[in-house]
Amino acid sequence: xxxxxLEIEVVMVDDASxxxxxxxxxxxxxxxxxxxxxxxxxNYGHQIALTAGLTVARGSEAVMIIDGDLxxxxxxxxxxxxxxxxxxxxIYGIRxxxxxNIFKRFGYYLFYRIQRKIVNINIPLDSGDFSxxxxxxxxxxxxxxxxxxxxxxxRTWIGFKQIGLEYERDKRxxxxxxxxxxxxxxxxxxxxxxxxxxxxxxxxxLGFFTISVSLIFTLVVLIKRIFYNDVPQGYTSLLLTITLxxxxxxxxxxxxxxxxxxxxxxxxxxxxxxxxxxxxEKELFNE
Length: 287
Fold this sequence. Notes:
Elements: E1 10-14, H1 21-31, E2 35-40, H2 46-56, E3 62-65, H3 77-85, E4 90-97, H4 102-118, E5 127-134, H5 135-143, H6 151-158, E6 162-168, H7 181-193, H8 198-227, H9 236-267, E7 275-280, E8 283-286
Parallel strand pairs: 1-2, 4-6
Antiparallel strand pairs: 2-7, 3-5, 4-5, 7-8
Helix pairs in contact: 8-9
């Protein structure tokens, strides 16, 4: 099958951009009925913007998820589609080679492998959001109301028949990435805390470890007192003990807080996003 034989709709999501992206999307959507423009009321972040696009996409067979910087090659659509025809519900890209700086590459490499070890589902290594997903998978994603979203993890959790294809990710041709270190860390947190109970288990293990250290230290003090009539003097040992337990308590509270934070925002039941307006087939709809 050729690309020309496919009926394709392109949904362009503007996440309250500060450059001229909105104007360009507006112009394209009004002049070409194959393009739909979706303009969010404020900046909600990458994962929510993708979610908004999925709720609007009308593809009856499948939806391709791709970032606007086109570092992921849209030319793979036909290859992905052929696997869809073979019965796969999710065809995702695996980044064989990145063309970012060495620190970023190492950070991504380390994160994916740590995540693989501690999460409760088998999220494929080096896979991003770039994928082609069937309509039934899109429908399930749209029914998942998670506020702190990690779409590639949600996609894996859904199941069905999935396959990964390797590709080389190109350098960014124009502009600069808006994904700051803070946003990357937040995404990493969502990828871990949303799909793993490992942090809570670490707290339990850390608690047993500190109790063991405390008991051993107490035993040593008693032996010195009973058999050698000697008790450690000074504030050094006391200070180290207090510092150790204080650090353990703060780390434990921080980890528990991450889960409580997610529960707090989830139970509010707020909509994940608000749409300022959208352009579908040259018609303007205000929300």
